[in-house]
Amino acid sequence: MSIWEMRGTKHAIQRAQENLEPMPELRQGVFMKLKGEPDDESGTYTGVADALIANPADMIHHLLRKYGKNVSASNICTSGFGSFTLARTELDARVTGDFDIRVRQGKRETVAQVIDRICDQCGLSLIEPLDGVFRLLAWKAAPSGDGYIYRPAADGGAVQLSWNTHLLPESLQVGFTERSKIVNEVYLHWLYNEATKSFDRLCYVDPNESSPTSASYQTKCSDSQTNYGVEKRMEINVDVHYLETTVEWLRNWIVDMLSTQHVELSFGAKPSVSDLFCKQVFQMSTDINTFIPWPIKAAGGSWSGKNLWTEGITRTQPIRGQPEYTIDGLQV
Amino acid sequence: MTDHLTLSKERTRVSATTIEIALTGKTLYLTDVGRWISSTFYEPVIAKWGEIHIQSGGIAGIAKVSPFTFEVRNKGLGFQAAGDRFADLFDDYEFMGKTITVKHWYQEGASWYSRTIFKGDLDKPQFKQGQIELTAKCSDSYDAPFPPSVFRKEDTGLSRLPDASVGVPIPVIYGDWTSQYGITCADGPEGIENVGITRGVVPGILIDDYDGTTKSHIYRVTSHAVHTSEVTESDKVFLYEPEIDTLCSLEEGLSSIVNGASGVDIKLARPIYAEAFMKPGECPSGAIFTNPENATDRKEETYTEFDYSNDHNFVFIMEPQADLGQIVSAKVAALCKVTTGTGDAAKYLEIGLYDNYPGSSEHSSYTANTPWANPAYVSRAVTNFANVNNWNLMDAGGTAIHIFLRFSDGAVAGVCRVYQICMTFKYRPKALKGESEVQGIRAKRRSERHMWSQ
């Protein structure tokens, strides 16, 4: 079961743990200090000529272009929704200093598997090239007033979906994510040591343990345990992190995203939503309140201002007919 | 909130979905109801549209696009190709791997506008009675194996590749693997950070274990050239001593680094075999010395306590297991805290490094003082021993290296905790004369490792 899964497929972060068994190398080895893949003379990936590639967005860009098959500049989104450049900016804005990571890949996988692992550990979403273009989104702090803490970056604001214009109302279903997906204790093993084949550091938040965590995140976890009546620990290895700032961001983000239940919904839609992207944030028009109130008690029963994001989109096309869409959405 | 996307009502009026298949030398334009769009006629051969589906794997990760499958009637393409059947095209053109583009069209006035809703490569055609089923995938572009290459003896420069390295992937490395860090402790405001105890390093893989001319060993670190800021500097190569969890930097001149298009190689001037064992140690009779193993367990939460009232020496020992070579210089770091007894700012924590202490009149010893400025808190003590001058490791007499801790002014009774103690040293390996001696030392190592395990 994926740690990130609210509903959906198995995810890569657990595979990452399985992949950390000792390499077929000398037990007592020869080691060196170095800095890895550099940018080219034009600064194609980092924006700076010959700079070290260390930002996760730049790293994924480089992985696709250098180690993918026939991926060129035209296959990479560089502006607007899904821009790799914007994702880099959002990543760096999360922490004091830069959001840098490091990767040593010595086990045979695929480029996609390594990118999946980086995304999992850095709060990133890569969208496969449905129209020939890869897009990358970094979850970020939402603007004041949105009421939620994170949403994909650079989406220009939530798309408004109207009951009559966009939806097929009779198809709407609303529910909650399962209580079993709640997480309210987080233990991250980080700073992977290539010499000892082990992790040297632990970053955690646990309401039942004294820890050097900010009090607000201890409280969030404690409230979660009280509200849902369940103590659920996530303990994972995060091998790309070597900076305390980035791993603490990840720990806090996990708490923000997984310590509460989320509203999920599914609905049919008209061709007018054909521009909607996977992972895009949308809001429902208030006329939906007449039929189904917002199901979280404390939120006052209205869908107004509630951010959701598209978790899945299916387009079906009948012969000689207009296409229809089925959209799975999840509360941000 | 702004309505960022134009979710167009116009597109529901007059619209069409088409598929373009870009074969080599010919592009096929297909749809379900034949029509002209701009100056192109789209043949009405699509018998069934498949679903186009994209699904997020979770909050983070990759949103994956499912393969797109559609069916084509096996009839002729009057405008686009001669022949009675669509299947005849397979005689003249290669379909596998060719790009298809699915577009959604809409008309405004006399003009048509399109948006690409799927783009992928054809994977597997299936022929049915009267119809052909075609499937395309859009994710093949990054399903490539990674790392892309493995070690093979037949590759240039790898003719002496050891069997253990054959088939091992050649690593790809991103990011900064130069950071230094030491030991931190949650019990106080200060830890042993930035003392030069290097841990963020990457391993090399042996690709040449006996060059008959130079007797050198070559280790490959990456399959690609790396950032040049580090590899041109000295002091970048280390040996890892697993038993004491210590990376020992090599004396300058014993290694060289090549950073080229085929990767980064470390070349060692001669074969090097080294193992060492650090064990917690000894104290005079009657002194407190609880759980001394806690100071060498690499855990920040545990500690040993010792009584420092009577100038007792508390010793940690590194005992090499083989005839190794020499220590050129060393650095010792300790993480300590006074817990009982009045703190005395005039005190010093003395860290000593002895060759075969205490009965070492014939050997050198080096001692340095670290100010014990604020004994109420956890403090770090770091001492450099720059002039050890070639102590032999495990010489004929079984020499061991001893680290001892002592307070320089022991008049005040008290107890000190030691959370961790560690050492790194610059190392000159013993020169070897030939392969027979190498084998002999390998056998000795195996034997001694067995003894230790007992």
Compact summary:
Chain A is of the alpha+beta class and 332 residues long.
Mean pLDDT of chain B: 70
**Name of the CATH superfamily of one domain in chain B:** Galactose-binding domain-like
The greatest interface between two protein chains, and residues involved on each side, is: A-B, 116 and 105 residues
Mean pLDDT of chain A: 83
- Note the quaternary state here: heterodimer
Note the gap between the termini of chain A: 21 Å
Strand order of the largest sheet of chain A: 8-14-15-16-13-9
Which secondary-structure class do the elements of chain A indicate?
Answer: alpha+beta
Principal-axes shape call of chain B = elongated
Secondary structure tally: strands of chain A: 16
What would the principal axes of the Cα set say about the shape of chain A? Answer: globular
Q: Which percent range describes the beta-strand content of chain A?
A: 25-35%
Number of domains of chain A: 3
Features:
heterodimer, A: about 325 residues, alpha+beta, 3 domains, six-stranded mixed beta sheet, disordered N terminus, B: about 450 residues, mainly beta, Pnp Oxidase, Chain A, Jelly Rolls, six-stranded antiparallel beta sheet, 3 helices
Structure explained in plain terms:
- Chain A is an alpha+beta fold.
- Chain A folds into 3 domains: 35-138, no CATH class; 158-177 and 262-331, no CATH class; 181-258, no CATH class.
- Chain A has 6 helices and 16 strands.
- Chain A has helices spanning 13-18, 56-67, 84-93, 111-122, 215-228, 244-258, and strands spanning 30-32, 34-35, 103-105, 109-110, 124-127, 135-141, 150-152, 159-161, 167-176, 185-193, 198-205, 233-237, 263-269, 281-284, 308-316, 324-331.
- In chain A, strands 8-14-15-16-13-9 form a 6-stranded mixed beta sheet, with no helix packed on it.
- In chain A, strand 5 and strand 6 (135-141) form a beta hairpin.
- The two termini of chain A are 21 Å apart.
- Chain B is mainly β and 454 residues long.
- Among the domains of chain B are: 14-142, Pnp Oxidase, Chain A (Roll); 276-435, Galactose-binding domain-like (Jelly Rolls).
- The longest helix of chain B has 19 residues, at 435-453.
- Chain B starts with 14 loop residues before the first strand and ends with a helix.
- At the A-B interface, strand 1, strand 2, helix 2, strand 3 and strand 4 of A face strand 5, strand 6, strand 7, strand 10 and strand 13 of B.
- Strand 3 of chain A pairs antiparallel with strand 14 (172-174) of chain B.
